[in-house]
Amino acid sequence: MKNRFAAALAPLAFLLGSCATPFGDGLSRIENVVVIYAENRSFDHLYGLFPGADGIANATAEQKTQLDHDGKPLASLPATYDPVQKGALRADLPTSGLPNGPFRIDAPPISRNWSELLPNPIHAYYQNREQINGGANNKFVALTNVGAWTMGYFDGSQMKLWQWAKEYTLADHFFMGAFGGSYLNHLWLVCACTPRDETAPASARAQIDEQQNLRKRPTSPASVVRGVAQLFDGAVTPDGYSVNTTQPPYQPSGVPPAAGGNLDLADPARHTLPPMREKSVGDTLSAKAVSWAWYGGGWNAALADGRREPKEPRQVIYASKGEAFQPHHQPFNYFARFAPGTPDRAQHLKDGDDLSKDIANGTLPQVTFYKPVGRLNQHPSYTNLAEGDAHIDDVLKRLRASPQWSKMLVIVTYDENGGFWDHVPPPSGDRWGPATRIPAIIISPYAKKGFVDKTPYDTTSIIKFLTRRFGLEPLPGVRANAGDLTNALEL
What we know:
By secondary structure, the protein is an alpha/beta fold. It has helices spanning 2-16, 43-47, 61-64, 125-132, 160-167, 182-191, 281-287, 299-306, 343-348, 352-361, 385-400, 460-470; strands at 32-38, 81-82, 88-89, 103-104, 152-153, 169-171, 174-175, 292-296, 349-351, 367-371, 408-414, 440-443, 451-453, 457-458. It has a domain at 21-57 and 155-199 and 241-488: 3-Layer(aba) Sandwich (Alkaline Phosphatase, subunit A), CATH 3.40.720. β4 (103-104), α4 (125-132) and β5 (152-153) form a beta-alpha-beta unit. The protein starts with a helix and ends in a 21-residue tail after the last helix.
């Protein structure tokens, strides 16, 4: 009888489209999904001391003990190098001689505060692959540009986000979707895909060896103790995939318009990523008439700034002070469907101020992606942890007070690890990932309370959840062995 009843309802579920979920799974109670995407921190770096989590205390000696370029363990940690000064020593960060392994940043002898601007480890595709070293996670120091600093972590219990994690669900086996940095992981958040860049110049292509690792330059030091590795790196793989930061073809872009040219476009004479035509989760949401928007902090100001004639100095894009807007953090701006002048761009790409208004008015779309502006996104070097922690906490408080809260699910996570060490091996995957473990907090009236979720997830789990909840067409890059976040929920 039950099967006949379900079969009779199937046509109705089809007609309801985005409002329907598979019969009886309870997900239809969740009407609004909000994804908050912060920057560049590994799980152990922030939550390695979280009670009940798979933290630093569980790391094996092999995972803690970092290897030099010759594959032998370092006798002790090297100095911290300054990436801005191209390998100069940071005498104010005395890591040289520390025991080989992870160390507290906010404890002696380092004793630095999470509200300070601190070094930014390299976070790039080939380096991340080699740092993970088949799951041993023991080549982080050898393949970084900051020496020992990649092994630093905080006691995160002072963070406001830590308290949200204690109250709701902390996922302690959530991994970045792709090896490398922010650029590629933002694209994996929205399309689970790595774009092609077949027109990239030869100078942009990485040079790799038979192990698929970057070739070292003749001038590269034999040991990380003697300095930062010098590598034949590039934004594009030898076979034409774009894996490291490449600018969007549309403004706001790191490439200004051509002199006297179309102010909506990056200068076509300077290389950008060709407009992407891969299918994104935006496409699949729109196909089911599910309302959605990407809210970018500082979007309106950056758009105006990006549309200046090239002779005019930019005030917002890549600013070293102030808001600091990063164009490669806006993934839909790479897609032809969202090009300047298109209806989809006007409908779906919003400013961070619009988010504040929509929260207060209870008019958030069914699916919200929010990218905080640079000063508030927790990225090392150009901002700090404290300001972003306070900002995201404020957004969460406003969401919990909003008219839509009772049927809302919020996911707070990070695009990637920022080059910081983590001890847990990523699950098996493909050429692109998954990669290093990152924090993820699931916050909702339906989230399990005080729960540490050990289900294997990666960035594509967010797409998988949206696909299941709204009955979307699956995207081919979403990994079959990644969970869909439902283990964090009580429905």
